[in-house]
Write a structure and sequence with these properties.
Helices cover 22% and strands 35% of the residues. It has helices spanning 46-58, 123-129, 133-140, 142-145, and strands at residues 7-14, 19-25, 32-33, 35-38, 66-77, 92-101, 115-122.
Length: 146
C-alpha cells in the first residue's frame, strides 16, 4: 500500500470581490472545504502540489491566474476516519496555505469521485460553511492577506 504523505496544501480560491469557492466532499456529504491535497512525493514542490490539486479538483489551470503562497502553515491532527490513508503511527499533517484569485466566471469542473457540488459564497459565509477550522481561519484572513 502507498501511504499519503502527511504534508498537504490548502488552496483558497477566491474572486476579486472576495467570493470563495467551496467544494462538498463526496466521501462526507455536508462537509464543505477549499481545495486540499497531499504531496505526491517528498520532492514535489508545494506550489506544484497546489497547481495539481486545483486542476484535479476543479479543472482550473492555476498557472493562468495569480497563485500565491500565503506563507502560512497549520499542523493538525488527522481525523481518525482518514488515518488509514497514512503510515501507521502518523497522526498529524502539516498543511501549507495558498490563495488563488480567479474571475467569477471561470469554469469549474469537479472531480466526481472527490466532490458532489460547488458553490461561491462571500468570504465570511464561506468560512462559516467549512468543516475544517484551519480552512475557515485561512478564509477569514483573506482580506488581510490581499
Amino acid at each position: 500500500m502507498t501511504y499519503k504523505i502527511p504534508e498537504s496544501v490548502l488552496v483558497v480560491i477566491y474572486t476579486p470581490e472576495l467570493d470563495v469557492l467551496l467544494l462538498e466532499r463526496a466521501d462526507k456529504p455536508g462537509f464543505w472545504q477549499s481545495v486540499t491535497g497531499s504531496r505526491d512525493s517528498m520532492d514535489e514542490p508545494l506550489v506544484e502540489t497546489a497547481i495539481r490539486e486545483v486542476a484535479e479538483e476543479t479543472g482550473i489551470d492555476a498557472t493562468a491566474f495569480a497563485l500565491k503562497d500565503w506563507a502560512l502553515s497549520n499542523i493538525y491532527e488527522i481525523y481518525p476516519v482518514w488515518r488509514h490513508r497514512y503510515a501507521p503511527g502518523v497522526t498529524h499533517n502539516t498543511e501549507h496555505v495558498f490563495g488563488l484569485c480567479v474571475r467569477r466566471d471561470v469554469p469549474v469542473t469537479l472531480a466526481p469521485r472527490e466532490h458532489l457540488q460547488y458553490r461561491w459564497l462571500p468570504w465570511r459565509e464561506a468560512a462559516d460553511q467549512c468543516f475544517s477550522a484551519s480552512n475557515a481561519e485561512a478564509i477569514l484572513q483573506l482580506p488581510e492577506l490581499l
